[in-house]
Amino acid sequence: MTVELMGGSSSTDMEDEARVKVFKALSDPIRLQIIRYLNQVHRGVTCGEIGGVVDISKSAGSYHFKVLREARLTITRKESREKYVSLNYETLDKYLTRFFDTL
């Protein structure tokens, strides 16, 4: 069976890059634990709280939060001196729940 691809549109290329970022972000066990925890609590939590639950150092946490944020899997908001992280359900729905619809 041969699959013919339509001309490479920059919109499709950008979507493919976003898909790759999402799946790369999810390919790490620590980041999966972070996603799982955020899904369980259904609220914004501090980076320190997540670090304690997942048992990672502050610097390791910063790296993992950055990867998740860049993949748009999480939303970070700053309140005073604390950063709160929550899931971005829009991205999860678009690239995971409706994965085949977006191809």
TrEMBL record:
An MF annotation (GO) of this entry: DNA binding
CDD domains cross-referenced by the UniProt entry: HTH_ARSR (cd00090)
Statement: the UniProt record of this protein carries the keyword Transcription: yes
InterPro entries membership: ArsR-like_HTH, HTH_ArsR_DNA-bd_dom, HTH_MetalResp_TranReg, WH-like_DNA-bd_sf, WH_DNA-bd_sf
Superkingdom assignment: Bacteria
Keywords: DNA-binding, Transcription, Transcription regulation
Protein name: Transcriptional regulator
Organismal lineage: Bacteria, Bacillati, Actinomycetota, Actinomycetes, Propionibacteriales
